[in-house]
Amino acid sequence: MRSRYLIVYGIGLFSIIADQFTKWLTVHHIPLWRGFPVVPDFFNLVHVLNRGAAFGFLNSTESNWQIWLFSGAAIAACVAVHLMTRSAKSNKILFTALGFILGGAIGNLIDRIRIGAVIDFLDFYYKNYHWPAFNVADICICVGAGLMLLTIRDFT
């Protein structure tokens, strides 16, 4: 029983540290709204602020309601992760998924509470098509969601 908590909260803590450290590096080495190419014509490191959800969803609106909505969603996700950790059958893949989701949700929540937006810095593109910038927390949430899909049969 204790091992499930070690997996979830250990991966969650690792994800938060990786996310916040990479954002700290971004803030201290790349001016806001600037960037530079890492792999020309494919990948830039940038420093942008995102008031919306992952990958810039709802970023362009002018009001502050997104902070409350997405902060509330992150808190709800953390509660759901804890409840699932307590009640789920022993499944290391599921617990790994929950850890990544927890860490990603908290990583972006820290930014929203601290500065009212999320720091994004990974910018992939091809020709004129840019995927919206994202960060390590977004990656953790997506990896966690993907791993959860692998375990979906356990919930049905």
From TrEMBL:
PROSITE patterns: SPASE_II. The active site is at residues 120, 138. It is an enzyme of class 3 (hydrolase). GO terms for cellular component: plasma membrane. GO terms for biological process: proteolysis. It comes from the Bacteria. GO terms for molecular function: aspartic-type endopeptidase activity. The keyword Protease applies. It is found in: Cell membrane. The keyword Cytoplasm does not apply. It is a multi-pass membrane protein. The chain crosses the membrane at residues 65-84, 93-110, 130-152. It catalyses: Release of signal peptides from bacterial membrane prolipoproteins. Hydrolyzes -Xaa-Yaa-Zaa-|-(S,diacylglyceryl)Cys-, in which Xaa is hydrophobic (preferably Leu), and Yaa (Ala or Ser) and Zaa (Gly or Ala) have small, neutral side chains. Pathway: Protein modification; lipoprotein biosynthesis (signal peptide cleavage). Its EC number is 3.4.23.36. Keywords: Aspartyl protease, Cell membrane, Hydrolase, Membrane, Protease, Transmembrane, Transmembrane helix. PANTHER family: LIPOPROTEIN SIGNAL PEPTIDASE. Belongs to the peptidase A8 family. This protein specifically catalyzes the removal of signal peptides from prolipoproteins. This is Lipoprotein signal peptidase. The gene is lspA.
